[in-house]
């Protein structure tokens, strides 16, 4: 299913490259793929992917950004629309059998009672945001870094396992979820620092992948590292990301499909330093501008307002 959607999106991107000389693989592909995949998995109908992406991005900026009071009102309106729409989707009981929404509405608690609507909506709300924007951000970094690495693009298309290993190195070195919050349940000591119960922590997940005591030459992208998965890009413990396998699969499929479908593309001149999403916990290129050699460069403006 992921391959089918990837091929569909890439054939539109190819047409755009043929007719306009280039395209932005972030908006046309990286961002759109996880949204389309989740729509199928969750059984979401009667709303278009662009609306879902707008709702999800608004939620991210509202909860993890630093919006001005006026911007908070705009974002809250979109997030409210999203929540209301999900409530109707859960209440309406129209999701296809076997989908996430249908399973939640049919789920019975140990006492035999159904899950209340608020809880089911909360689960869908969080899974849609957690599974969509983060994976789009990972794919964006994966594509951008792969296109900037000399000789890698043709190898990804040809050699088995290269895409998976590249995705893992990007997760280690430049994960989309850079920090995560925790509250200490009881007094604890971390690296000699005493923490009382109830302390609010911001864990620097991204730094863990560049720890020289764990990874030799952490600054180098080495897809053959023996301990390639010893990073904290998906957190750890009982709240570790349940979508890790899905995200890894989507990113590897996306990279391989792009390298095979668009073998001749390269980053547009000037696209090596793209505008970045820079929220408290999320970081990724907001643009992956590509062109085919010989084509005119595409303009690099027209990106969202959250760049840093
Ligand atoms: C590259 C993509 C992704 C990254 C980097 C990522 C990262 C994370 C991180 C760091 C956490 C917090 C873990 C912790 O507290 O220890 C988390 C939690 C979570 N993620 Fe992901 N995630 C990704 C994709 C997904 C996908 C595809 C889904 C579902 C379809 C998903 C669903 C969730 C959920 C439901 C939680 C909350 C788990 C809990 O609190 O028990 N994530 N993710």
Key features of this structure:
308 residues, mainly alpha, Cytochrome p450, two-stranded antiparallel ribbon, 11 helices, binds protoporphyrin IX containing FE
Description of the structure:
InterPro entries: Cyt_P450, Cyt_P450_B, Cyt_P450_CS, Cyt_P450_sf. It holds the Pfam family p450. Belongs to the cytochrome P450 family. Keywords: Heme, Iron, Metal-binding, Monooxygenase, Oxidoreductase. This is Cytochrome P450. By secondary structure, this protein is mostly helical. It has a single domain, classed as Orthogonal Bundle (Cytochrome p450). The protein is built from 11 helices and 9 strands. The strands form 4 sheets. Strands 1-9-6 form a 3-stranded antiparallel sheet. A hairpin with a 4-residue loop joins strand 7 and strand 8. Helix 1 runs antiparallel to helix 3, helix 3 runs antiparallel to helix 7 and helix 7 crosses helix 9. It is globular, with a radius of gyration of 20 Å. The two termini are 34 Å apart. 37% of the residues are buried. The C terminus is likely disordered. Protoporphyrin IX containing FE (HEM) binds next to helix 7 and helix 11. Protoporphyrin IX containing FE binds next to helix 7 and helix 11.
């Amino acid at each position: 299913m992921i391959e089918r959607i990837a091929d569909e999106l890439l054939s539109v991107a190819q047409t755009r490259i043929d007719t306009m000389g280039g395209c932005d693989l972030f908006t046309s592909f990286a961002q759109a793929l996880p949204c389309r995949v989740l729509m199928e998995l969750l059984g979401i109908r009667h709303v278009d992917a662009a609306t879902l992406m707008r709702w999800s991005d608004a939620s991210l900026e509202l909860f993890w950004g630093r919006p001005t009071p006026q911007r908070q009102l705009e974002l809250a309106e979109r997030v409210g629309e999203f929540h209301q729409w999900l409530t109707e989707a859960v209440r309406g009981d129209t999701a296809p059998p076997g989908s996430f929404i249908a399973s939640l509405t049919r789920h019975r608690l140990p006492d035999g009672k159904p899950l209340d609507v608020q809880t089911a909506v909360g689960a869908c709300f969080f899974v849609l945001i957690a599974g969509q924007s983060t994976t789009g951000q990972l794919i964006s970094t994966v594509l951008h870094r792969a296109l900037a690495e000399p000789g890698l693009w043709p190898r990804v298309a040809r050699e088995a396992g290269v895409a998976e290993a590249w995705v893992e190195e990007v997760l280690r070195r430049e994960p989309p979820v850079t920090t995560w919050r925790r509250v200490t349940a009881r007094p604890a000591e971390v690296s000699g620092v005493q923490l009382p119960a109830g302390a609010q922590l911001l864990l620097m997940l991204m730094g863990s992948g560049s720890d020289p005591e764990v990874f030799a030459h952490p600054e180098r992208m080495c897809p053959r590292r023996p301990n390639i998965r010893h990073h904290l890009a998906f957190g750890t413990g009982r709240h570790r990301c349940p979508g890790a396998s899905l995200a890894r699969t989507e990113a590897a499929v996306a990279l391989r499909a792009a390298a095979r479908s668009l073998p001749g593309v390269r980053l547009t001149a000037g696209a090596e330093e793209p505008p970045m999403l820079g929220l408290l916990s999320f970081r990724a290129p907001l643009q992956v501008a590509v062109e085919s050699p010989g084509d005119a460069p595409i303009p690099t403006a027209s990106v969202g307002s959250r760049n840093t």
